[in-house]
Amino acid sequence: MKNLLFHEIHQKSRLSIKELNNTLKGFELYSSQWSILFCLKQFGSMTQKEIWQYLNVEAPTVTRTITRLEDSGWVFREESHDKRAKNVHLSLFAEQHLPEIEKRIQLVEKEMVANLSNEEQDQLILLLKKIGQSF
Amino acid sequence: MKNLLFHEIHQKSRLSIKELNNTLKGFELYSSQWSILFCLKQFGSMTQKEIWQYLNVEAPTVTRTITRLEDSGWVFREESHDKRAKNVHLSLFAEQHLPEIEKRIQLVEKEMVANLSNEEQDQLILLLKKIGQSF
DNA sequence: CGAATATACTTACTTAGGTAAATAATAGTT
DNA sequence: AACTATTATTTACCTAAGTAAGTATATTCG
């Protein structure tokens, strides 16, 4: 069981991203774009900093992805009171299409963990959350 | 707990890659390069196909990474009997340095799962392995 | 045998993530 | 008030992974 944990996490991460991208293809979206839309759906408008902090990625990654989402009409940026920051909002188009996308993704997720009982699924999430908490 | 599994896997994958890259910096290696060296250390010489099948990535990804590993002297390619395929070998330099790298990485992995008991670590790997088996 | 198919790898191009440095606005200090 | 430090975002450039298409070698089948 030596050194297998990282390998396994990495493998399943790639697998789930593949499945996610495959599902999103019909909506002309990519997995990272989806993660930001999902974020905004959950919490409402956010600054870019709030987004990258929640998603645990770096600021430039979010800049890039939001620029693409803005170009394709899923979100728009609004100047905030603090002129350095920008508030990101879902577009009307996004609000209208997100529920359908969410439904499809939940189906894929269900398939992926079909071999795990509900208890195992909860246990897995709990264990994953405990990783790297000392950092 | 809706839709949290993929998110959590993705998060921890990014976190462990960051830690891995940080550790490998001293050896002028990146995480994906390491995964191939680890592979060759475990199984001996392999064709590129054997490598990407084991690592569950696509062929072009492995081509690129091996080219870099070859340029920096960690591996070399040898023509196989089937002239389409190429056998990849660890260099002497790699053989000499891998044990030290392995030791360092194991320390980082240990830190990352310090909050989990040994049983939890085993359980986590088992659950991860069950994901996506229907595909 | 020869044409069609399959296989192993490569090339070109896309998105995803990272670091380092630049820019612009804010906050703090003297 | 003015200088300094901090903060939010962006730009430029690196690796990682994917798809699609190209090349060269093997295999299969009429």
Molecular structure report:
Two copies of one chain form a homodimer. Chain A is mainly alpha-helical and 135 residues long. Chain A has one domain: Arc Repressor Mutant, subunit A (Orthogonal Bundle). The first copy, chain A, has six helices and three strands. Chain A has helices spanning 4-24, 31-43, 48-55, 59-71, 92-112, 118-130; strands at residues 46-47, 75-79, 86-90. Chain A has a three-stranded antiparallel β-sheet with strand order 1-3-2. The interface between A and B is large, with 49 and 49 residues. The first copy, chain A, binds a DNA duplex (30 and 30 nucleotides) through residues 14, 17-18, 21, 30-33, 47-49, 57-65, 67-68, 82-86.
SSE diagram, text form:
Two copies of one chain form a homodimer.
Chain A: H1 4-24, H2 31-43, E1 46-47, H3 48-55, H4 59-71, E2 75-79, E3 86-90, H5 92-112, H6 118-130
Antiparallel strand pairs in A: 1-3, 2-3
Chain A binds a DNA duplex (30 and 30 nucleotides) through helix 1, helix 2 and helix 4.
Number of domains of chain A: 1
CATH superfamily of chain A: Winged helix-like DNA-binding domain superfamily/Winged helix DNA-binding domain
Q: Beta-strand percentage of chain A?
A: 5-15%
Largest interface: A-B, 49 and 49 residues
**Oligomerization state:** homodimer
Shape of chain A: globular
Instruction: Report the end-to-end length of chain A measured between terminal Cα atoms.
Output: 23 Å
What is the rounded Rg of chain A? 17 Å
Low-confidence stretches of chain A: none
Looking at the structure, the CATH topology of chain A is Arc Repressor Mutant, subunit A
Q: What structural class do you assign from the helix and strand content of chain A?
A: mainly alpha
Provide the residue-averaged pLDDT of chain A.
93
CATH architecture of chain A: Orthogonal Bundle
Largest sheet of chain A: 3 strands, antiparallel
Query: How many runs of DSSP E, i.e. beta strands of chain A?
Result: 3
Helix content of chain A: 55-70%
Domain HTH marR-type (chains A, B): 2-133
Organism (chains A, B): Planococcus donghaensis MPA1U2
GO molecular function (chains A, B): DNA binding; DNA-binding transcription factor activity
Pfam families (chains A, B): MarR
